[in-house]
Specification:
Blueprint (H helix, E strand, L loop, with lengths): L2 H42 L12 E3 L5 E4 L2 E4 L2 H10 L3 E2 L5 H12 L13 E2 L2 E2 L2 E6 L7 E12 L5 E15 L6 E5 L3 H14 L3 E7 L7 E3 L5 E3 L4 E6 L5
Parallel strand pairs: 3-14
Antiparallel strand pairs: 1-2, 3-9, 4-7, 5-6, 7-8, 8-9, 9-10, 11-14, 12-13
């Protein structure tokens, strides 16, 4: 038997060892990247205490379940307002008869209304503290918009949590529950959640972003206007960069 023939089994065993080593390294990387490291990060991230007993959904003035909560921001009111403005979201006008008539007229005549009012939704017994929007095109019937409510609890840095419900208004029509004229939301509320976080991130206004999985137990539902929505159940939490730094 020549030397080449004798060395073949040895080369084959070496190739198997290399393959086994490669598979082992790949398995270790997979476990670390997808299980161990995310678990460690979840343990290191300090959740805001207001999230412990936070509500899951808003309500209309008549007590009907409204838009689900899908985003939260940590920071002062000044931090939040400065961040939203820098991300090119406009504060919504007050909900007055004059402004409601204007949004109706601007919708009919396709005129832009960048800070059109939003209808009131309630959380912790009061209507939204702040509301912002981004118009789409030159017609207020379509817009990205978000409402925020300030939680009472603050974190160890004395910063409050702002629970938010962000959705996309795709059209204007009649409410399926009350018959009143209202905006109808797009069903994919997760896309709006991710979009707002992305806007704030691109503006460099977030120091940390983390998610609360299974925040929403119901993954499908209807809001106060009877519009359907669906979600993966995740609440996105962004910690705002202080506006005075």
């Amino acid at each position: 038997m020549d030397s080449d023939t004798r060395s073949f089994p040895a080369k084959k065993r070496l190739s198997k060892r290399v393959l086994y080593f490669f598979v082992l390294i790949l398995a270790i990387w997979f476990l670390a990247a997808y299980f161990l490291i995310p678990t460690i990060w979840r343990g290191l991230v300090r959740r805001h205490p207001a999230l412990e007993d936070a509500p899951r959904v808003t309500h209309t003035a008549s007590g009907i379940s409204g838009d689900p909560l899908n985003i939260a921001l940590v920071g002062s009111k000044e931090d939040l307002v400065a961040a939203m403005l820098a991300a090119k979201w406009y504060p919504a006008d007050a909900l007055t008869l004059k402004n409601c008539l204007r949004i109706a007229a601007d919708t009919v005549f396709r005129r832009s209304y960048e800070d059109a009012p939003v209808s009131n939704l309630f959380l912790w017994g009061h209507k939204e503290d702040l509301a912002f929007e981004q118009p789409v095109g030159g017609n207020p019937k379509q817009r990205h918009h978000v409402r925020f409510w300030r939680a009472e609890k603050v974190d160890e840095d004395n910063r409050p949590l702002w629970m938010g419900a962000v959705t996309f208004d795709k059209s204007v029509g009649f409410s399926h529950t009350t018959g009143q004229i209202t905006h109808h939301i797009d069903a994919n509320i997760d896309a709006e959640r991710d979009r707002l976080i992305d806007d704030l991130g691109k503006a460099g206004l977030l120091t940390t972003v983390y998610g609360v999985d299974d925040f929403q137990e119901k993954l499908k539902g209807h809001n106060g206007g009877g519009d359907p929505y669906y979600t993966d159940g995740r609440l996105a939490v962004g910690v705002l960069r202080p506006s005075n730094k």
